[in-house]
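Hi again,

Forgot to attach this to my earlier email, sorry! This is the prediction with magnesium ion bound. I've pasted everything inline since the attachment limit keeps bouncing my files.
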Amino acid sequence: MFLDRDGVLNEDRPDYVYQLDHFKIMAGVPLALQQLKDAGFLLLVVTNQAGISKGIYTQQDMEKCHRYLQEQCGGLIDHFYFSPYHPTISESLGRKPGSLLFEKGIARYNIDPTTSWMIGDRERDLIPARLLGTRTIQIGAIEEKSEQADYSAANLITAAQIIFTH
Ligand SMILES: [Mg+2]
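Structure tokens for the complex follow:
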């Protein structure tokens, strides 16, 4: 299970989310992650964090948020893959819609992408998954529904329900 972070696991903000008091885990997320884990999925977060290369926050700030998220969901997340880069500073295949972060996870955990899912809120989350043959679910943002989405869901709980019925 590939998971975008902002807008899927925690509430997104107009600017970057990097302070603990702004890091609001969305309703039902710990439960949904537990259900997915119980169903046998690895849980890999794949997140663009360009604020790092822009100097807005540090990798340590981000890791503090990730530790908090792990605490709140019982350490269920197997790995966080992040891209600190921004195209105005340095290009990276790791930055979504590039697929490198996904490929790292696929290689490390010997994952079959065609039996995997990607849950994201933006089209750029879904494009690399589609390229790899991974099924996609778009969360929220119905007003900008992506053609890259195989399914759409209001939140992670309903996304998990879709996965369990397919
Ligand atoms: Mg997002």
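The chain has five helices and six strands. The chain has a mean pLDDT of 95.

That should be everything now.

G.
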